[in-house]
Design a protein that fits this description.
Strand order of the largest sheet of chain A: 3-4-9-5-6
Shape of chain B: globular
Distance between the termini of chain A: 61 Å
Low-confidence stretches of chain A: none
Strand content of chain A: 15-25%
Oligomer: heterodimer
CATH architecture of the largest domain in chain B: Orthogonal Bundle
CATH topology of the largest domain in chain B: DNA polymerase, domain 1
Strand content of chain B: 5-15%
Structural class of chain A: alpha+beta
Helix content of chain B: 25-40%
Number of strands of chain B: 5
Largest interface: A-B, 35 and 38 residues
Shape of chain A: globular
Radius of gyration of chain A: 19 Å
Order of helices and strands of chain A: HEEEEHHHHHEEHEEEEEEHHHH
Number of helices of chain B: 6
Largest sheet of chain B: 5 strands, mixed
Largest sheet of chain A: 5 strands, antiparallel
Number of strands of chain A: 12
Strand order of the largest sheet of chain B: 2-1-5-3-4
Number of domains of chain B: 2
Number of helices of chain A: 11
Amino acid sequence: MVKNLLPETLEDALTIYFGQPELVPYSGGTDIMVGSSCEDKNFLFINRIPELKQIRLDNEFIRFGSACTFTEVIENDLTPTILKEACKKIAAPAIRNVGTIGGNIANGSAKADSALIFMVTNSLLRLQAHGSERILPLRDFYIGRSKTAIKQGELISEILMPKQNLDNYYYEKVGARKALSISRVSFAAILDVSDDIIRNCATAFGAVSDVILRPSEIDNMLIGKSIKEAKAIKSTYIATLDKAIVPRSGRVSIEFRKDVCMNLISDFLESNGI
Amino acid sequence: MIDIIKFNLNDKEISYTGSASARLLDFLRDEKKMTGTKCGCKEGECGACCVIIDGKTVNSCLVAMGSIHGASIITIEGYSKTERFETLSKAFESVSAIQCGFCMPGMLLSSECILDGNPKPSETIVREGLSGNLCRCTGYNSIVKAVLKASEKGGGLW
């Protein structure tokens, strides 16, 4: 009954998926098993495939295997603090022990807490299919509410986080409670300053719109500026972001989401002397 | 290619040939009659269905049978035969940490994982470790106290 559903290698998984594209990939199961309809699905179990469980470093990237659980990501020495912090705020230990970063991305939710960090760090996805593969910026993966650019037969095999200075980051998850909390607004930002020049500025807003927002063109306004110059254009930067952020209503109102976003961006700038 | 799901359940080898998408929670309660694993919410919110898989707490309501091939699983029935359980159980009794009892199997297994990872946990670590286990009677402070007491009394067990 379970034949073909339990591949032992990534190659096996991709071959099976190519032949049976109706299968539903099962990584951690913590989203897909909610509700009764899961019992009628035929899953392709990728949760124990060794190639998808590695976290390693190469010249350009920290490479996270998509089936790494949040706990495994938190406990790994290669994981940057900003990602550890976001993963620690996901649900509770029993969920973090099986829920995976690949699943968090693949379900296409703008509330995905680990995906927010991969977005603000301009991470890329390695998408593999039987006989082919491609690299796609995470930003291009999200194409609408719960809609992604994944093609038939493709699996997310790795998340590639470009090596960069992530020491000075800002992260805030606004939820209704401490544990088992679903983001109502989440915000992550990176500011890399050296010799008084902003070398990198990146922001991302989660749980606000249909997709995680990553206004890189607006953030570019601050890159290359001194702190003093950044201060001088702060109001223009904030006003441009204000226009670009168009929240949708949900568990909280549009106005609440907008206010929180603008408060967080102000706090991020002020905490950096801007 | 694997066509039988094999795993270890409370120190017994199990070969399972049923539906791979069935829930571990239902398998435990309906097929194995291990009703100590409680069904609270079936969406990973309450922690009443906690079991230990490969040394870590997991909500069995969110686990499909196909995902546990090769795993080692401990339920409250297996855990209750251990010295660690005796120590935890006595600590829970001594500070009246048990009210209706529905959350207890999950609370005890989460407590085991907290102490297994850190034999002398701080209160913060205990609260974090129990954060996925809801108690409808809201007796959290006593439960936290019980875990800290078990840590004190259980010298060398964890």
